[in-house]
Amino acid sequence: MKRSRLILLSFILIMPLFLSAISTSIFYDKKLFGGENHLRIYLCDKSGNGDLSSIDLSKQDYVFFAYEPENDWELKEKDLKGKLNEIELIQSGHRISQDYLNPIIIDEKLQKVVAAYNKSEFEFHLPINFKLGDIFSAKISLSEELWPDYEVYKNHLYNSMAHFKEEEYLASFEQLEKFYLNPIPFLEHFSFYQDVVLQLQSSVKAWIASEKMDYELLNFDLTQDLQQEKLNELIELKNEIIDTEQSFSSYFNTLSENDEIEIIQDFSDLKQTVINSLDKHNSTLEREKLNFLASSNYYEYKFKFYIDLICDLLIWKDTIEIFEDPDSLTITKLSLFPDQKAELELLGWNEEFSLLIKLLNENVSKENYYFGPEIIENLNSQIDLEPKPYAGIFSAFDHLAGKEYDQFAARLNEAFIKCSEQKMLLDLENWYLSYLCTVRSVEPAILDLYQTAKGLEDTGQFEEAKLQYEIAVKTYHDFAPPWFSLGRLYYKDGEAYKAEIYFEKAIELMPEYLAPRIFKINFLINRNEYQQSLTEINSVLREMPYWFFYYLKAKSLYELKKYDDALQVMVEYCLKLNKYDIEAYFLLGDIYLALGHRNKAIESYMEAGKLDPENKKYVEKMNNIPK
Predict the structure, then answer these.
(1) How distant, in Å, are the alpha carbons of 377, 444, 539 from that of 568?
(2) Is the pLDDT of residue 10 over 60?
(3) Whether pLDDT at 433 is above 60
(4) CATH 2.30.30 fits 23-142, yes or no
(5) At the topology level of CATH, where does 528-627 sit?
(6) Fewer CB within 10 A of the end CB, N or C, for the chain?
């Protein structure tokens, strides 16, 4: 790709022009014996030298004119304090007075006097004359070659043209910056000024046309084959356009004519076209990353790891609320999963995973789903391989993103059946409770009160939280979650039997409420009250035939030494619903050992080892198998 080089060296230097003195004449006084005395007035330097250039003139603080007698007469010292002080310079009707007089004495004779006029009052492009009393001199004009910085400006134009010839359009433009950045007042009166105007326009137009051609070639290549290397070139082109905009902006501010303003529009169109194209190609390239989720499988570790971590981020929920807009997946939640976060960093997958999260969030805002049909279809095709109910959960949240709340709840209930982790069950239930609050239009006030209490509990302010929960159950007695939360706090305080009363109340208000049932069953198991836990589990299974409760049933039967019944539950229910839970194989191995089936016990433990070879419990189980 060809780029304009910023060459700021001058190709051509115009040598300073020294012009013969520009002069006029004015009547001074009458001769003693008839005739007239005239003064010759000419442009000069401080010493009265009439041969000077524009460079000399630009260095002077004043504009100097010499007063020199014409023909055969002499100035006297008295003239310095007399009539010479009365001479004025006239320019466009404006009078400019002398600032001071500098006598030039040669061979003890006053040869001439140099008058200094304030340069700031002088306009070099306008004709001037001089006035003494009622007498005016003939008007004279200063050649533009004597105007300050003439050579400098002319050089910039010639150098710009040289750059343009070399197709270095930006350098050509930058040679002319002096013409519109803090220009001198008479700049437009240079004879070559219109050439500058045209050269500026030509440089900018040619640069735009050159960049547009580069863009079209790049865009064609990217359309044919989307490669990161070409995309980087497009990024470079975009950055070059934005950088150049800073150079052009001051020039654009000087334009006013319609044909000139078209240049601004052409530049703006080019910039926006490149930005839009870059966004489009970037988006296409990024979205190809999502194809990984739509095409890979659970045999690939990265796919399994990503799906599991996305699921964790998706379902994590520590409160109950009314649905509004779908929640964004937040990468900052990774801090809640330190092991997975550390593994992302170890494997160098941070950037790619963050991009996937960004793309899934874009799906929500643009398509009203997180994953879309292709990813869901891929997950559904691998249901027999999934260790957790990912397909059902992801499908549920696609419905949630589309605000299809009933379909969301239906798919969530399907996911409950296969769920083997207590935390996942409770997280999903918070989503289900939020669904119920939404469709039943629960008063926001009770949810605010509940969330306040939950926040206090989460920060360890248990007594304050307990007080808020008590207010909630008294104010909104038919809302189940505060009853359960109170029971949970009493359980933490060691008041298990009091806690059980609150659990029962929560279940009475909401029979499908999982959290109090799980808490109650675990409470019984932890107290080795396995017959009571079995009774409670059987009651729950009649309404909620979930893997998790079947597992707890098998565990209770095992503890009651009802090994055949425990084996039947494991084989006919747990393994059929989910055959990828490591704890299930540990329990199955223990049951086989209790039944005296050593080889089958080893097989079960080995299945657990296949799921997680580094698991310490697996190693212990294998080491403790009776010989």
Answers:
(1) 33, 47, 18
(2) no
(3) yes
(4) no
(5) 1.25.40
(6) C
